[in-house]
């Protein structure tokens, strides 16, 4: 019996490990619990990855993100609901507090059910702007799906997103072969404020897309909310505590129909896709990547051992001493691991990126690239050696590594840097520049000795004549 | 070796000085009429003659020990100037070495100047309570302290 129990325990442990880096409790907020079946494949994927899902309606009394002041869930998935708000238990304030306490939120929008004003104001607070028309959706007359939206052009087809800029890891490109198509049906585009460094768009609309209000009867659009790549279709925000907030513009793209559906693209700009064939969407894979990122299954960094030591010719065996002397040669190393779906793997920055070490007192005296010097089974060791500055005081070894899509690493180790002790300076004769002055002292002293000897040897000669006429000695 | 040589030059001042006294005196006496003839007996002396007569006067009236002091001070000025010029040309990298080397020379110069003042027979009235022996003992004591400091400071 006991061995059975222990096997059960081991099995549970195995299940418990195959999850997000932060935990596996997921709350799904959806209005009609019957709607669950629409997303059955999506939820099946989540459960397959080890999430423990609780479904709640926003109207229910029991829904609550906190119990006794602690987070009751690590992750929150909000699906569109028709009601104006999400009720008293899911106000923007509570959602923000959830983020502040490290919870991750995946918010989905839909053009069919207008976004509740409570969520609009939450998004505004994060500098994510939604179109003012509540039914606005993203249309594209060049990149739409001819099978399902030949009239309305509101199913936008997009390729996998590129890296937003060089030096940023792209978690969302799949196997990177290209040719894959993401269907974005009836979604809401967001425009992002310029000021927030925490916001990163994952999926931007194609050049020819724009936000359009179907209720608008006018023939021509005059006041477009946003167009082209201004429109972010999937937006991420990583707070300073590394909690993640993700907005997916179209909840429909997570539905079973679009996971397996086939699409055929329209003729695009410059005749692209004239001979397009029916292809299967890659929504399922893309949804896995987006959800995995949002719920901290990928892109989570962990700092392992940090070591710094004296390395003057021979490496000192004393690690992390409290005190160094100015101009000491010092070696610093830090272990970094990255969580990849279900395990810690050695972290490698992308080609254009590098982890840096700052040696700083108020401002950095050194900012050095850390080079990977070795790997363990689940971490990379980054090392650098340098000479401490000629400045005594309280210094920090600081690794401040904050990149889009990766959790923030900010490690500070404080050391004292003392000045030379009086007997640690090089002796004067060691420095060849001092030799002339040593010779000067030697000349002065020998001259003085000679002078004294002569003085003592010479007899005072009384002079007969003095100007004052006095008698001498 | 430089001080040795200068001392050696000066170690026979009694003999050389007397000979020098005799020779410049011998040359100067004829030089006066030589110079005066083109000057048409205006009584004005050329700068060269003024310098010469000052030098002659110095040689005649200065006690031998004071001359010894003057030679040593000249030597110190030369050594100090060399150190300073080196510092200006080559830079002051071990600055403490420059400071101690230069200040050893300057300090020695100051101390020697004090000795010269105190032992000068002209100033006898000023230093009634300080005998030349006492002044010399003070000088040796002060110099030793100075050397100790400078050797320490150059590290």
UniProtKB/TrEMBL annotation, chain A:
It holds the Pfam family OST48_MD. Pathway: Protein modification; protein glycosylation. Residues 317-459 form the OST48 middle domain. It is found in: Endoplasmic reticulum membrane; Membrane. Residues 1-18 form the signal peptide. It is a single-pass type I membrane protein. The chain crosses the membrane at residues 434-457. It comes from the Eukaryota. One of its GO terms (biological process) is protein N-linked glycosylation via asparagine. InterPro entries: DDOST_48_kDa_subunit (IPR005013), OST48_MD (IPR055459), OST48_N (IPR055457). The keyword Endoplasmic reticulum applies. GO terms for cellular component: oligosaccharyltransferase complex. Residues 25-294 form the OST48 N-terminal domain. Keywords: Endoplasmic reticulum, Membrane, Signal, Transmembrane, Transmembrane helix. PANTHER family: DOLICHYL-DIPHOSPHOOLIGOSACCHARIDE--PROTEIN GLYCOSYLTRANSFERASE 48 KDA SUBUNIT. Component of the oligosaccharyltransferase (OST) complex. Subunit of the oligosaccharyl transferase (OST) complex that catalyzes the initial transfer of a defined glycan (Glc(3)Man(9)GlcNAc(2) in eukaryotes) from the lipid carrier dolichol-pyrophosphate to an asparagine residue within an Asn-X-Ser/Thr consensus motif in nascent polypeptide chains, the first step in protein N-glycosylation. N-glycosylation occurs cotranslationally and the complex associates with the Sec61 complex at the channel-forming translocon complex that mediates protein translocation across the endoplasmic reticulum (ER). Belongs to the DDOST 48 kDa subunit family. This is Dolichyl-diphosphooligosaccharide--protein glycosyltransferase subunit WBP1. It comes from Coleophoma crateriformis.
UniProtKB/TrEMBL annotation, chain B:
Its main location: endoplasmic reticulum. Residues 27-42 have a biased composition (Low complexity). The chain crosses the membrane at residues 71-91, 136-154. GO terms for cellular component: oligosaccharyltransferase complex. Keywords: Endoplasmic reticulum, Membrane, Transferase, Transmembrane, Transmembrane helix. Pathway: Protein modification; protein glycosylation. Residues 9-26 have a biased composition (Polar residues). Residues 1-46 are annotated as: Disordered. InterPro entries: DAD/Ost2. One of its GO terms (biological process) is protein N-linked glycosylation. It is found in: Endoplasmic reticulum membrane. Pfam families: DAD. It is a multi-pass membrane protein. GO terms for molecular function: transferase activity. Belongs to the DAD/OST2 family. Subunit of the oligosaccharyl transferase (OST) complex that catalyzes the initial transfer of a defined glycan (Glc(3)Man(9)GlcNAc(2) in eukaryotes) from the lipid carrier dolichol-pyrophosphate to an asparagine residue within an Asn-X-Ser/Thr consensus motif in nascent polypeptide chains, the first step in protein N-glycosylation. N-glycosylation occurs cotranslationally and the complex associates with the Sec61 complex at the channel-forming translocon complex that mediates protein translocation across the endoplasmic reticulum (ER). All subunits are required for a maximal enzyme activity. Component of the oligosaccharyltransferase (OST) complex. This is Dolichyl-diphosphooligosaccharide--protein glycosyltransferase subunit OST2. It comes from Coleophoma crateriformis.
